[in-house]
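seq as requested:
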Amino acid sequence: MTSIRLSVVSTDLEQQLRRNMSDRGHACASICAGLSIEPTIMPIARILVAFAVAWLPFAVASAAELQVSNAWIRLLPGGVPAGGYFDLRHDGKTVVQLTGASSSSFGDIMVHESLTEKGQSQMRHIDVLELPPGRTLTFKPGSYHLMLMQPARKLNVGDKIPMTLEFANGERVTTQFEVRGPGGM
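struct tokens:
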């Protein structure tokens, strides 16, 4: 079997890839360095490696495009479902869609919006919540919130609970939510 060094990326594309990776603060390792393949599969390998190289900057960038801050849980007495609140910042270039959340600490979590219509307070279930690029969405009392139901254990003020936000594109962002009392303290 003959080993060959595969050089699939044009000089311009390779330079662009290195710039993109450098802009994101990552070291760019040469994908093709040391790659050995049989000559008969070289055309297919070139296509697959070129495709992977072309999409690599987008895969690396997505994790840093969404940031969760000020995450906390309002603990309410008497078995009333708790509320989850946070700020979600989106620094990407396309709209993202929040579709839900999960945590091993709760049996069921739903995205809700509290609103007042004709003097009546209401709560509405949200299936998909869109967040445009460059915006921050604030989940707060009286607005958007996570309805946290069926706690797996007794929660105490000061506990840190891991929660994962889930998006339509398959991305998941996990952060720690601090348990606070009914007044948010």
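Residues 42-65 form the longest helix (24 residues).
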